[in-house]
Design goal:
single chain; alpha+beta; six-stranded antiparallel β-barrel; four-stranded antiparallel beta sheet; 6 helices; 22 strands; about 25% helix; about 40% strand; elongated
């Protein structure tokens, strides 16, 4: 499409030039080398837009690569607290869950057996406590032997310890002790989400048996997504805590602002790099944990006069801009500096600060000028 426009623009210039020779009109002709005049139709054809130099943040750049990650507290691997069969779960990777939400139910006859043992031990403890209190009262009245008191005390303490152990085991696998104390035996236990986040992995099949400590779900909270970067040793001296950065996932044009939070004091001897921990200000859904990213760390950032990179044209490897006055466009040489986010620094702009500069369509006007 651009080739068609340039071709059309070149034809229009040629026609206009011929017309000028015929009728001496001053409407659109190349006046001199480095300048060209266009009629409004040609300006529209070239899609020319003009603007003034703006102040933008431009900085030297340290480029680093790495991966997205989340802090340890934002990741959770849920295991089966005790072996059992999965009888209820409809969750799939990518689904969002809230902290405390039930993710699955497990069942096993051993759960029932353990709860029965707990209730029997609780009943025996109650009897042992009553017997111990009776023996202690009799001992105070010298109506029973000390040996019987010691035996009842030992039985009471043993049952008390056993009940505490059973209670701890049942709480670990998720049994509701309050309901069990009321006599309600629970044939299934629930696996609940310890954090809010997205299901990263669901390693189960309905009705499958899972062993204790086998990971069933993995949850990731992407709200605190960050990047772990590798900066080469020759660049690490330029990097400091608090510096801004631009982060881009490989294969994507979208960039996300961030900042340097931590710098490792130890070098990776094999890669000759230092680890840099960066925060992402506003992570989007496009970013996922473990994605490969490229980051540009801004060092010595400053606000300087700048133009869009599209406004710069080159002749003999020297940078120029096109200054527009009505339909007349003139080449002006410039000195460029650093680049960032599609903008390039203009050093010592001088009077160009007050000029209207072609910021869109500069390459097409320049091509027509050369013709």
């Amino acid at each position: 499409m651009k080739l068609h426009r340039m071709y059309g623009l070149a034809i229009a210039l040629a026609v206009t030039g011929c017309t000028r020779n015929d009728d001496n009109s001053a409407t659109d002709a190349v006046k001199e080398e480095g300048a060209v005049e266009l009629v409004p139709q040609q300006v529209a054809m070239a899609e020319v837009r003009t603007s003034r130099i703006e102040y933008r943040v431009i900085s030297d750049i340290v480029t680093a690569t790495g991966e997205t990650d989340v802090p340890p507290e934002a990741k959770a691997a849920l295991t089966a607290p005790s072996g059992g069969y999965i009888v209820e779960s409809t969750l799939l990777p990518g689904m969002y869950v809230k902290k405390g939400q039930r993710l699955a139910k497990l069942t096993n006859p051993e759960y029932v057996t353990l709860q029965q043992e707990y209730l029997e031990t609780a009943s025996a403890l109650q009897f042992a406590e009553q017997d111990y209190l009776r023996q202690r009262t009799l001992e105070e009245q010298n109506a029973t032997a000390l040996k019987k008191l010691q035996q009842s005390e030992s039985t009471y303490n043993t049952l008390k310890g056993r009940l505490a152990g059973l209670k701890a085991r049942l709480e670990m696998i998720g049994v509701d002790i309050a309901a069990l104390d009321r006599g309600t035996i629970q044939p299934a236990i629930s696996i609940k989400a310890p954090i809010s986040g997205y299901i990263a992995n669901a390693n189960f099949a309905q009705g499958a048996y899972v062993d204790a400590r086998e990971v069933i779900f993995e949850i990731v909270d992407t709200e605190h997504l960050h990047v772990e970067l590798n900066v080469f040793e020759q660049d690490i001296a330029k990097v400091a805590k608090g510096q801004s950065m631009r982060i881009r996932a490989i294969g994507s044009d979208a960039t996300y602002p961030g900042s340097v939070l931590l710098i490792s004091p130890k070098r990776n001897a094999e890669q000759r790099t230092f680890a840099v921990h960066g925060h992402i200000d506003s992570p989007a859904e496009e970013l996922r944990t473990g994605m490969f990213v490229e980051a540009r760390i801004l060092v010595d950032a400053d606000t300087v006069p700048a133009l869009p990179e599209e406004a710069i044209v080159y002749q003999d490897a020297r940078p120029y801009v096109l200054v527009g006055h009505g339909g007349r466009f003139e080449l002006r040489t410039v000195q460029t500096g650093g680049k960032l986010d599609g903008w390039v620094e203009i050093r010592d702009p001088g009077t160009l600060m007050q000029e209207s500069i072609v910021t869109e369509g500069a390459a097409r006007v320049f091509a027509a000028m050369k013709k």
